[in-house]
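I'll show a sample.
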Amino acid sequence: MILDFFLPMALLSLAQLTFCHEADKAPGVVDSAIPIEMRGRWGLTAADCDVTRDDATGAMLVSAEMLGFYDSRARLGDSHEVTPHRIDASYSFAGDGMTWTRDMTLSLSGDGSTLTRTLSDADAGPVSLKYGRCG
């Protein structure tokens, strides 16, 4: 008898909390992290996957909220689109004493072996870099 009353009330409260949380989000902004399928070490060349090399300038380390490069870091900002194989978001970069923001898209190949990082450069136009999964 008590469960007949309290269980529906608990579920209703949970639904209201979820609705309120969703209503607080800014329009067009997705609450997310970098998909787990994309995380790990990636290299522009096979040599970039060798962790003993100090000249692996094409290496990229991907975590839940950060991209790490040879001389800079990029923290995930607002995400515009997130699927297991694609994330379109803005990133805040820091490196060599400078900071900047850039919109980028990370796209994972169907077999998970290639990660393409695409960004727009005001002077050069769209730039796509293809990384291979390390080890």
Observations:
- Helices lie at 2-24.
- Strands lie at 40-43, 59-62, 66-68, 73-83, 86-95, 98-108, 114-121, 125-133.
- DSSP finds one helix and eight strands in the chain.
- The radius of gyration is 20 Å.
